[in-house]
Amino acid sequence: MSTTSDPRDITRRRLESRREDVLALSHSLHAEPELAFEEHKSAKKIADLLEGAGFDVARGICDLPTAFSGTFGSGELVVGITAEYDALPGIGHACGHNVNGAAAVAAALALAPVADDLGITVKLLGTPAEEYGGGKVYMLERGAFDDVAAAMMVHAAPIDGLGFTSHAISSWKVAYTGRTAHAAAMPHRGINAADAMTVAQVAIGAYRQQMIPGGIVHGVVTHGGEAPNVIPGRVTADYDCRAETADDLHELKARIRACFEAGALATGADLELTDVGRDYADLRQDAEFGDAYRRAAEALGRSFDHVPSGMRGGSTDMGNVSHVLPTIHPSIGYDCGETIMHNPEFTRYGTTPGADKAVLDGGLAMAWTAIELATADTTRERLLTGVAGR
C-alpha cells in the first residue's frame, strides 16, 4: 500500500483527470443507441478508451461479438465491474445504459493507479444485451466471471437505491400458424391464427386470479394478419413472464405455456414458442458489499433515505451473476422530472448535468467500494475463499 497518499484521494484525482473522456463517452453512447447484440460501435468506444488507458483488452469474448473484457493490475482479488450499453427499440437509452456504461469505465479508470498497491485486478466486463437476450448469462456460463471475486455496477434511475431485488423473467416469441382463406366466401376452410392468440390471451386473463403471488405476464402482438377479408394464417407476439424468484418463474412458465397450447388446441393452429436468450434470475444483493457502497456514496453526498422499503426493480441479467458471487446493483439517481424509465422522456435526461454527475459519482463510489473490499481483511478473505470454493 502506498504510504504517500490515501487511495481514495488517488482515485478521485485520477477520475477528475479523465472526467471529460468519461462524460464524452456517456454522451456518445447516448447519441448512437444500439440494440441488443448489435452494440458494435458502443463496445468499440469503451474498449478503445480502456485500451488507450493501458488496460489489457480482449474483444468478442464468450463467442459474443459485442462482449469484451478490460483488465488492469495483477492482484489475486479480482474485482468485476460490469458495463451495460444496449438501448431500447425506438426510444434509445430510455433505461440510461449510457450512464451505466460510462460509470463502469469511470470506476475502472479511477482504480487503475492503485490496483497493484491494493492487491487487486480490475476487470471491466462489457456485457451486451441486458434489455433483451441476457448477455451476462451467456458470459457467466462461458467463464467470463470465473475468476471474479465480487461484481458490481450502478444503474441509472430517478433515485438512488440500494439493496432492492428484481423479478426473474423469461421471454418468448410466440407464433401461431393456421391457414388463410377468404373470410366471407369460405371461412370454414381457414384456420384462424388470430383466434388462437385470442384464446391464449383469454386463458391468461382468466388465470390471473390464481396466478402465483408476484407473477406478471405481459406481451404485444407483433403481427395480427394481413387484411380483414383474409382469415389470418400467421400471427406472432412477444411475451414476458416474471416472478419473484427463479423457482416461481419455473411454475409460472408451465402454466402460461399451457394457455398458449390451449389456443392451438381450440383452433387447430400450430404453435411455436421460442425462448429469447436466457432466463434472468432474481437479483440477490450482498449486504456487506452493499454497506460498503452505501458508505462510499454517502461520502459523496448521496442519500438513500427516500428509498421505499422492499423495493423491487424490473428484471436484470445481473440477477444470474448474483446467484453465483457477491454482487451489488445500486441505482444512481438524477433528476428526470416526472417521467419514468423505459419512456422516451427519460431518454432526454440522459446527458443532463445531473446524469453527468451520476456517471462520476457512480464511478467513484464503486472505486471506493472496491478499496474497502480490498483493505478490510475479513471481507477480502471471504471474497477470496468464495472464488476458491467455486
TrEMBL record:
Family to which the UniProt record says this protein belongs:
Belongs to the peptidase M20A family.
Q: What PANTHER family is this protein classified in?
A: PEPTIDASE M20, XAA-ARG DIPEPTIDASE
Every Peptidase M20 dimerisation domain range: 170-263
What organism is this sequence from? Yinghuangia aomiensis
Tell me which Gene3D superfamilies the record gives: 3.30.70.360, Zn peptidases
* Protein's UniProt name: Peptidase M20 domain-containing protein 2
**Alphabetical list of Pfam families matching this protein:** M20_dimer (PF07687), Peptidase_M20 (PF01546)
SUPFAM superfamilies noted in UniProt:
Bacterial exopeptidase dimerisation domain (SSF55031), Zn-dependent exopeptidases (SSF53187)
